[in-house]
Structure prediction request, 379 residues.
Amino acid sequence: MHVEALELSKFRNYRSLNIELDPHLNIFVGDNAQGKTNLLESVYFLATGRSHRTNRDGDLINWHGEEAQVRAQVKTIMGSFTMRANLSRDRRKRFMIGGEELRRQSDLLGFLNVVLFSPDDLQLVKGSPSMRRRFIDLLLAQTSKVYRYDLVNYNKVLQQRNSFLKSIAEGKAKRDDLLLWDEQLVRYGTQLMFRRAKAIDRIGELASISHREISGGEETLTVHYLPFYATEGTTPETLEALSADEIAENFAQGLAAHRHQEMRRGVTLVGPQRDDILFRVDGKDARQFASQGQQRTVVLATKLAELEFMREEVGEYPVLLLDDVLSELDFSRRSSFLEIISGRVQTLLTTTDRDNFQQDKLCQFREYGIVDGQLVGEG
Ligand SMILES: Nc1ncnc2c1ncn2[C@@H]1O[C@H](COP(=O)(O)OP(=O)(O)OP(=O)(O)O)[C@@H](O)[C@H]1O
Ligand SMILES: [Mg+2]
Prediction:
């Protein structure tokens, strides 16, 4: 799928912008603080309903404005349609597909799929588990309606169960009623975990292939799902090919084992909100042992796997947003990355230094200069 045209009004430092995009490679060149990331953020926002760098939607509206709008003409194998996001300082945000307003924000996912790769993603290996959970959640929420549904429901149940636990801790509720919440928690949670396990398995296969391509075949990457009940000594291989029944059983056991602690502390201590993903290079935990360069290669390989996974699941590639990350790679890694995606994936790429891409054997591409939230010249 690809974005044919993008229109911004009062989004961040853009007063108004109207551009047509190449179905393949688009390079946005500009100095620091000119609006390159803001532009990618607008596409990410339209696709996912949220920004990748702030939880305050008001930040996205131009400082001198009350409302902002992002509009895109999107083309997919299903057809061509318009997507629109409206932000306002005094109303909730609204999303429109064609002329129709969406009732729930979670319905937005799946219309325009994106994979974002920004400098923050280099933390995917070393950062906190929550980053890795967000990674797998967004991937699955974009590609599976059922996962979206289970995720929304799980989070709702989790929240309600937590407030119920607080009431018990304060002596305001009966502990027997907790069982009702447990049943739902396990039901939705098991679905999430089962799908995560399968997806991470496939992502691992794909990532290890692309990892071999970029690293010149010298190292082997493996990716493993670590459900919340995996303990320090668990061998990740024993957690592969888990059945839904096994997961549900482990979940129920975990709840039983933590019941007293949960009631005392007033919070749910087990469940997929505690899952993690393990990356290994040549069998060693990349979080502990991988060098900077190795981590970067792992993330790059994982991003490529993400693209491929999405194509397998939905029948076409998502749009790739590359925020200033390729310039940090050495020439050969950058070239093999661009070679893999070229001609197949619509890419919006930002850089401060266009010379970084001069030597590369790029296929056709379109170049845009960005200065102070304005387009200056197209090539
Ligand atoms: N709501 C807003 N209204 C107006 N300007 C904003 C708003 N939010 C951010 N900005 C401005 O946008 C600029 C940052 O834009 P952006 O992050 O896109 O820069 P960039 O081109 O990606 O720079 P770098 O190369 O350093 O990453 C900042 O100078 C900031 O002041
Ligand atoms: Mg930037």
Q: What stands out?
A: The pocket of adenosine-5'-triphosphate (ligand 1) is lined by residues 12-13, 30, 32-38, 59, 61-63, 324, 352 (CB under 6 Å). The two ends are 23 Å apart (CA to CA). Residues 178-215 form the longest helix (38 residues). The chain has nine helices and 15 strands.
